[in-house]
UniProtKB/TrEMBL annotation:
Residues 72-112, 227-260 are annotated as: Disordered. It comes from the Eukaryota. GO terms for molecular function: DNA-binding transcription factor activity; sequence-specific DNA binding. The keyword Nucleus applies. Coiled coil: none annotated. Residues 120-170 form the WRKY domain. GO terms for cellular component: nucleus. Keywords: DNA-binding, Nucleus, Transcription, Transcription regulation. It is found in: Nucleus. This is WRKY domain-containing protein. It holds the Pfam family WRKY. It comes from Oryza meridionalis. The keyword GTP-binding does not apply.
Length: 328
DNA sequence: AAGATTTGACCGCG
DNA sequence: CGCGGTCAAATCTT
């Protein structure tokens, strides 16, 4: 979480001029990468990814300049559930890439359901893995329920990965951009995440642009170190980041809530609480492994500082050479 | 019919 | 005893 706080704080208090400069540079780099990939790569994945990055930068720039690119928002519209009963889900999933992509689209149509269920569900499905919801619980001192998901391949492969999604307290009231705290537990012993990753790149993008939600992702280290990352899920930029920043040090319950997050690690589950304000110790970072479920998909729009920081961190850990966002 | 979500019940822990 | 996590029957969508 220190990760989050550092980067977000930097963004929050900064004038747009400097930010725009960074974004512009990043955009240019992405454009070059895209050009290179288009010219040389026979694979769709990398090209799509580059295109997505490019798109994100464009949107970020547009935002910074006060321009409103179509797309984002109009999302949780019908949120509010009003009722609260059985489903109408977009039934998300499917064991094949094709069907999963389709389900992703389905989510958009259905689910007028409540508590921003759509966003929540979307956030749930965005991390390249196929999750199956197995529970929902009202949490004390929390206005929003916590959703429990497990890997869809639990039965097939005995995959023990699970995750919890909960809308944060502070940012949701202004409806503008709810923050979802996603905590991953356990390890994906299945390899389907790679397939899923590919499919998201291929088909899940429209959906991606819908959600104004932000996410605070918690990773885990085997020794309990924290390595949470947060980013806005939509075209919302620095503004959101600042909100997320606040989110990280809320005046009320959420703080305790986040301290409860026990990020997962490739090695297993840690029960150590996460200290929001404590910078990750080097040894903790060393233990940080990229959990598949924590992949950052194309829709994610990092604040520049975040991006840089995360990139550096990843590079330092040799993560970028792995399957982070790189469909196999 | 298959498979996913909903939701109340159950269980373990502090 | 309260709370959080999981189970499983019922329900719903495709």
């Amino acid at each position: 979480m220190a990760l989050t706080m550092v980067s977000l704080a930097a963004i929050a208090g900064k004038p747009t001029a400097a930010s725009a400069q960074f974004v512009a540079e990043g955009r240019e780099s992405a454009a070059r990468l895209y050009a290179l990939l288009v010219g040389s790569s026979a694979l769709h994945g990398p090209v799509d990814l580059a295109e997505q990055i490019l798109l994100c930068f464009d949107r970020a720039l547009a935002k910074l300049h006060g321009v409103n690119l179509a797309g984002a928002e109009d999302d949780d519209d019908a949120a509010g559930n009003g009722n609260g009963r059985k489903r109408k889900p977009g039934r998300g999933r499917g064991l094949t890439a094709a069907s999963a992509a389709a389900s992703s689209k389905r989510m958009r149509v259905s689910n007028a359901g409540g508590n921003g269920a759509r966003i929540e569900r979307k956030a749930t499905m965005d991390d390249k893995f196929l999750w199956r919801k197995y529970g929902q619980k009202e949490i004390k001192n929390s206005k929003h329920p916590r959703f429990y998901y497990r890997c869809s391949y639990k039965d097939d492969h005995g995959c023990t990965a699970t995750k919890q999604v909960q809308q944060s307290e502070t940012a949701d009231d202004d409806t503008a951009s709810p923050v979802y705290i996603i905590t991953y537990f356990g390890e994906h012993t299945c390899r389907h995440g790679d397939d899923a990753a590919a499919m998201v790149v291929d088909g899940g993008e429209e959906e991606d642009q819908l959600s104004p939600a932000q996410m605070v992702i918690s990773f885990a280290s085997s020794n309990g170190g924290d390595a949470s990352v947060s980013w806005p899920c939509s075209g919302d930029d620095a503004q959101n980041n600042s909100e997320t920043s606040h989110e990280s040090s809320p005046p009320e319950a959420p703080a305790g809530e986040e301290e409860h997050l026990r990020p997962c690690t490739a090695a297993g589950v840690s029960d150590e609480p996460i200290m929001e304000s404590t910078p990750p110790a080097p040894e903790l970072l060393a233990d940080l492994k990229p959990m598949d479920g924590c992949l950052l998909d194309g829709e994610s729009l990092f604040g520049m500082d975040e991006l840089v920081y995360f990139h550096e961190l990843s590079a330092a850990l040799g993560l970028l050479d792995r399957d982070w966002g790189a469909p196999v």
